[in-house]
Structure formats: structure tokens, C-alpha cells
Amino acid sequence: MKLFTARGKFLLPLFLLALHQIFSAEANPLSLASAAFSAIALSVSFVYKDQLSCYFAECCGKQWVDFNHTGFKEALAAKVYGQPLIGRLSEAVQEHWNNRHPAKALVLSLHGPTGTGKNYAVRILADHLFKRGGRSRYFHLFSATVHFPHSRLLDTYADQIHEWVRGNVSLCGKSVFVFDEIDKMPHSLLDVLKPFVDYHEHINGIDYRRAIFIFLSNSGSELIMRRMVELKRSGHDRSDTSNMAKFDHLLSEHVYSDNSSALRSSALLQHHLVSRFIPFLPLERDHVIGCIKDYLKASQPAHTGEKDLVDRVLNELPFVPNDERFFSSAGCKRIVDKTLMVLNDS
Ligand SMILES: *[C@@H]1O[C@H](CO)[C@@H](O)[C@H](O)[C@H]1NC(C)=O
Ligand SMILES: *[C@@H]1O[C@H](CO)[C@@H](O)[C@H](O)[C@H]1NC(C)=O
Ligand SMILES: *[C@@H]1O[C@H](CO)[C@@H](O)[C@H](O)[C@H]1NC(C)=O
Ligand SMILES: [Mg+2]
């Protein structure tokens, strides 16, 4: 009689109430049936209380939080242009997700020039981790210039981050925290994360090891750009991943030595707590054309077939280096403004 053990303290009074109703009713079949029915419904709702509340509101269970690795990989390949190394992002998440007892939280650091798809990839990740995507209560995005703009408030921010991470991970171990523009964060603020991403089984009873922390920044962009220009000049293509293999190694070395890098002097780096560095490469014309076409298809369907429109938008975008013009200097970032401008002018 499981009903009368664990949840007995709720069920017993209900049961007695139902009995009382049954016997105090004038024993007409209708009221008997309705009393019996309400007793059953009440008992069922108590036994399945958790499942019921998960049915109506987001909870940490599988029906709301479940990683779709295949879907994520496919979406990245279809939507994020020019990033042959991005598979490492889905691999890292998959490995961590499948591990029921990871040794520590997953910490990913995404680096690259602006407009290359870092934020976009993270949004796609949210869509494939949480049923509610980026609107999930377990997905947290902080932007340095919005949330942590004043370096004199370092201590306040550190307390906030500490409290938010603690509070949210205690609600759901599989929470995701994204810190955008970490190169613009007050120096050493990220150090507050160290205990949460270190090899601790738990801190005050809370296990942080299933959480995911993602850092986004432009640091390392010059290195990535320089290396890509060299490869391009010597006729190598980014899809030849043997050229790319050394990239994350170069990047992590660079992050350690770059004086301007937010991570350089951080405790996370010094204690090797960043699980992976993932480079985002500058975009070439064809990639930007892909972005422009996607945008037209999604937001300006009336103009998708228009001749020259894509070329006119491309002409508005700066490419570097000056003579060879290999790479869009803002990646796919400004295409919405530029397309609207071109459409207005015509
Ligand atoms: C995972 O994503 C793929 C591709 O979007 C989709 O076909 C599949 O139904 C998804 N699986 C689950 C369990 O949602
Ligand atoms: C969870 O994080 C959000 C910020 O994303 C914060 O506003 C909220 O208070 C946190 N919740 C808990 C329970 O700490
Ligand atoms: C960083 O600063 C040190 C001195 O503080 C200097 O020796 C080193 O060359 C600098 N490194 C870079 C990559 O600028
Ligand atoms: Mg950005």
C-alpha cells in the first residue's frame, strides 16, 4: 500500500473526506459516483503531482530539457556558414551530456571576429537543449556591456553571479550560463566561477558538474585572421581540416599569452578549467551570400528572386585585407541594415 506510506499524510485525510461524503450522501447513485470520482481524481493528482506540474510548466525533466545531438549538428551545418571546426562544439556538449557523472562542469570558450556566428551557434544550442529554447528558465545569457558595465561594481557583480549560479543550479543541474563579450568584463570577474567549474563533487550539497558555461569573445581574432589570410594566400581551403587541426592549440596558447585577453590572468585559465577553445573563422564572400539569402528568405520573401540584390548588399560590406578582400570584416553582422538600406534606395 504505497499510497498510504510516503504520501499517506496527504492521502489519509482525503480518503476520510471521501468516505464521509459517500456515507453522508443520501446514497443516491449519482452523488456516490461523483464522490468516488473526486476521491480518485484527488488521489491521482497527489501521486502524480510532479508529473502534472511538469506538464503545465517548464521543469528540469526530460520532457523540457533534453539534448538533441543530431538535430544540433544538422542545424549548425545548415545555418552557421564557414565554420569547419564547429563540430567540436556539438561533440563537447554531447560528451558532457551523455556522461551521467562528469568530473566537472563543461566550460567552452568561443573566440573569433565579430559576425562569425558565436552568438548564433549558442542560440541554436539552446534550441536543441531546451524545449523552450533561449526562453528556457534554465538558459542564462549575460552580456558584459549590458549586465556588468562598471568595473567599480566588481564586487556587486561577483556576488550576483555567485548567487545566480548557485540558485539556478540548485533548481536544475543542467543549466546553461553564457557570458558574452567576456573581453569587456571587469577584470577578474570571471574568477567568481572557479569553484563552480572546478573538480568538486558538490559545494554545500549542490552538484555543479552537469552545468555548462560558455564564454564568447573577440579575443584571438587577430591571430585567427592572420592565420586565415596566410592559408588563403597559399591557396589552402578552410574545408581542408588538416590545416585547421592546429588552430585550437594556437588559440589556447594565444589566450594564455595575450596581455589584453580577459582570460589570461584568470584563475579559470591558470587552473586549466576551460574544457575547450573553439575558434570561429572570418567569413568569405560565399558565406556572406549564404547569410544574405537566408535573411531574404526568412524576412523579405517578396525580394528573394530579385536580380542583383545580393550583389548590391555585398558591395556595401567592407572586406579585408584591402588589396585581396578575402574576408568580410563584420562577418554576417551588418547584413540586415545593409539589405534594408539597399531595398530603401531602390
Ligand atoms: C532531433 O532533431 C531532428 C532534426 O531536427 C529531428 O528530426 C528529430 O525529431 C529530433 N529528435 C527529437 C527526439 O526531438
Ligand atoms: C537565476 O538567474 C537569473 C538571471 O538569469 C536571476 O535573475 C535569478 O534570480 C536566478 N534564480 C535564482 C533562483 O537564483
Ligand atoms: C605582454 O606583456 C609583457 C610584459 O608585461 C611583454 O613582455 C609581452 O611581450 C607582452 N605580450 C604580448 C603578446 O603583447
Ligand atoms: Mg557578439
List the SSEs and their pairings:
Layout: H1 8-24, H2 29-47, H3 49-56, H4 69-79, H5 87-98, E1 106-111, H6 118-129, E2 139-143, H7 144-147, H8 154-171, E3 176-180, H9 194-197, E4 212-217, H10 221-233, H11 241-244, H12 247-257, H13 267-270, E5 276-279, H14 285-299, H15 309-315, E6 319-320, E7 327-328, H16 335-345
Parallel strand pairs: 1-4, 1-5, 2-3, 3-4
Antiparallel strand pairs: 6-7
One 2-acetamido-2-deoxy-beta-D-glucopyranose (NAG) binds next to helix 4.
Cross-sheet strand order for the largest sheet? 2-3-4-1-5
How large, in whole angstroms, is the Cα Rg?
27 Å
- Which range best describes the helical content: under 10%, 10-25%, 25-40%, 40-55%, 55-70% or over 70%? 40-55%
Taken from the alpha-carbon principal axes, the silhouette is: globular
Mean pLDDT: 88
Overall domain count:
3
Number of strands: 7
CATH topology of the largest domain: Rossmann fold
- Assembly type of the chains comes to single chain
Identify the CATH homologous superfamily of the largest domain. P-loop containing nucleotide triphosphate hydrolases
| Ligand kinds | 2-acetamido-2-deoxy-beta-D-glucopyranose, magnesium ion
InterPro entries: AAA+_ATPase, ClpA/B, P-loop_NTPase, TOR1A_C, Torsin
Pfam family, one: TOR1A_C
Family: Belongs to the ClpA/ClpB family. Torsin subfamily.
GO molecular function, one term: ATP hydrolysis activity
